[in-house]
Amino acid sequence: MSALPSHARPAASNASMRLLAAQAFSRAAGAPLIAGNAVELLIDARRNFDAWLAAIHSAREAVLLENYIFRDDEVAHAFRDALVDRARCGVRVCVIRDWMGCLGQSSQRFWQSLVAAGGEVRTYNRPRLASPFGWLSRDHRKLLVVDAEVGFISGICVSAKWLGDSRIPPWRDTGVAVRGPAVRDIAVAFSDTWARLGAPLPGDLPSFAERNDTAGDVDLRVVATVPNAAGLYRLDQMIAAMAQNRLWLTDAYFVGVAPYVQALAAAARDGVDVRLLVPGTSDIPAVGSMSRAGYRGLLESGVRVFEWNGSMLHAKTAVADGRWARVGSSNLNLASWMGNCEIDVAIEDRAFAEQMETQYEMDLGNSTEIVLHQRLRDRRSHRGSPSGTRSRGGSSSRAAAGALRLANTMTAAITNRRVLGRAESGVLGAGSILLLVIAIAALVWPRVLAWPLGVLAFWFAASLFSRFLATRRKPPD
């Protein structure tokens, strides 16, 4: 084979590097790059809800709806009634709800009219005696597929809370509508979860059909993660490593783990404009406190941190170098990266990334930058910050992320496996106080700890024995 002309070598080298990067992204995310799509950016719940309902009303063959929370209110009623209407017209309607997400929000009775009309509803991961901590894994996805025409992915739950009310402005959130070949991958992600909960969907549903026709010129990946897969975590790490100019992140429940924080810090020290936009007032105050505990390490490395001044900021997005963007359900914490079922789209398109950057700059206009020498803690002084926006509702998995960060820091301190920074001093203080309280309780009231430990030991023993019996009954490999 003859050598390339000298003037052709740089072009060939660049093409080779692009192919190598695409291969690395595909392997890291566990998701191939899909060409020929059209993607519409949908900002905030009203626009998303209107688009979802319009698509459902137009359904002719199948509606696949998977969401973490369905709250028994006017918004969820509108969706249920639309689904009932489609089911009565012969459309196959399948709904996946999360047990923990819907706990206290809606019950199985909420879906009786849909089931009576021929629809199907399945619940993800109810607590089981045989799995004491299995309930920590949640289905945190927010997706909708209608026929083979359109798929929606976002961070928005089916709840009027996202629309606000007379006192509280609407929550800030982001979604996308996808048309083209990638719709099939979104439907397959739904069907995989559906099959874990019962009989699989028939393979001849139109939503699963291979599509050769294109709807646009956008390349994207559908990153559908399951517990312990960590595909999006690997992809987020790669983007932090490969960003050259800008990496702008928005996250609702940021609890930075050391490897990812180090990746952001390294990018910032290398001259990348790294920005992190998080809620100023969180619906889960404990997670907000965990986020703030990690500010110092980020700020000292050059990462710029902003807090949203309005009501809850619930978006989970990223945009890098005006070429790559991510939108979906995954937060930047261990619960999303490792513990939950999540779904995101990673989009490689300049026009869409520019839209995302424009929206990000608009969001910063309603945010306050946090700086080292003037850390603004009192959110009541911020313009546009409503009173009474904190609530007790939210995801158990996000609270678990805070507990995981606490455990990770304390383990590192006890085993001396890595150097701890000043930003982790608050976590260490809280951990030492917690252990001190437990130690005092054990010395003064030993039965207070002995009885719960005994019950847990019995529960674990019963769980392991039931698993033993189940595996013994399986045929040999």
Folded structure, characterized:
The protein is an alpha+beta fold and 477 residues long. Helices cover 43% and strands 19% of the residues. It contains 15 helices and 15 strands. The chain has helices at 9-29, 44-57, 74-88, 99-102, 112-116, 182-196, 231-242, 258-269, 285-293, 295-301, 334-339, 350-364, 396-415, 425-444, 446-473, and strands at 34-43, 62-67, 92-98, 120-124, 142-146, 150-154, 174-179, 218-225, 246-250, 273-279, 304-308, 317-320, 324-328, 342-348, 367-370. The chain has a 15-stranded mixed sheet with strand order 4-3-2-5-6-7-1-8-14-13-12-9-10-11-15, sandwiched between helices. Strand 2, helix 3 (74-88) and strand 3 (92-98) form a beta-alpha-beta unit. The radius of gyration is 24 Å and the shape is globular.
Task: Give a short overview.
By secondary structure, the protein is an alpha+beta fold. Helices cover 43% and strands 19% of the residues. The chain has a 15-stranded mixed beta sheet with strand order 4-3-2-5-6-7-1-8-14-13-12-9-10-11-15, sandwiched between helices.
